[in-house]
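User: My instructor asked us to take a sequence, write out its structure as tokens, and then describe one feature of it. I'm not sure where to start. Here is the sequence I was given:
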Amino acid sequence: MHHPIAFVIAVAILAPLLAEIPIGLRLPVVVLEVALGVLIGPQVLGLVEHGPFLEAMQTVGTTAVLFMAGMELDFERIRGRPLTLALGGWGVSVALGFLAVALLHVVPGVEAPMMVTIALTTTGLATLLPILRDGGQIETGFGRLLLAAGTVGEVAPIVAVSLVLSNRYSSWQELGFLLVFLALVAGAAAVGIGARPPAVLELLARTLRQSTQLPVRLALFLMAVLGIVAAEIGFERILGAFAAGMIVGLATRGRDGEPFRAKIDAVCFGFLTPFFFVGTGIAFDLGALTRDLTTMALVPSFLLLFFAIRGAPVFLYRRELTPPERLPFALSSSVASLGLVVVITHIGLRTRSMNPDIAQALIGAALLSLLVYPTLAGFLLSRRAAPA
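Assistant: Let's start with the prediction itself. The structure tokens for your sequence are:
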């Protein structure tokens, strides 16, 4: 009960080891981390409680998840037609999400707020990237279109959450502050890309190999500062963390940035993000899923809604995708961003704008989407490739 760090790190070690077991189905490590978190949490074995320390570390882990998501973005790879289609598809998903939430309000005992709409329009870019990379599809037309859909499915919901939860100002003021914040981010990105005097580069390269680790500390400092700035303006910290990741990612593109990226990966993925995913499992309320029939039915309902809302825009791609590619594309687009869904539900619970039962059902459905939809998409694509 008194050693949460040891248990979280133990789960962070065990999860990737379990993912290597050849059982014919490779489970995403983040799913195993959440599942093992549930196992060691108060709902099952009771080895760890979700106390103040773990809650604080989970917040830090949340920031790290969004920071690394921002670093993964590469707009050069998806600009043009793929990005245009992705934006149009997300607009279709938002319209369908509004309709779905309106219909859910008809169900007795279900109160689905606006944030549910945003959660249902997410796409798990972090899940899709390794799948596309391992399958050698990143540079294909299918891969670029899916990367664009995943990118918009990560970025747009983050901005939307920040706007929806900002109650400090009027709508026009919110838009103005958002534009100011984006201008600040763009300026910081331009400085990060352009300001590379030899003396500065030599200092950063030298300290990266020393105990000071100055480039890593600067990146973490930027993550903290932009998070604070976003919060002070009236938005959520996740917007600042994501923006910081975008800036650092742009400034470290290419072979010269690979040593730094390896270091920041080690800090964030090796230590910070497990607190987010394992902490999510520890805090997960299994009892909420079986409390009544309505709540039990919400998990498969949300799972189907992820597919209906994010998969439906595939009709926009009828000229870009062959008929055998359309269903795998729709299934892959429907993989929810588990990290973002958990962040949205965490914020919803903290601000008391979301019912706990709805939050647990959304997380459960997002977990299932990571298991079901990539597996089905991979199976269909493998069948398509087999005759060739």
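For the description part of your assignment, you could build on this observation: The mean pLDDT is 79. Try explaining in your own words what that tells you about the chain.
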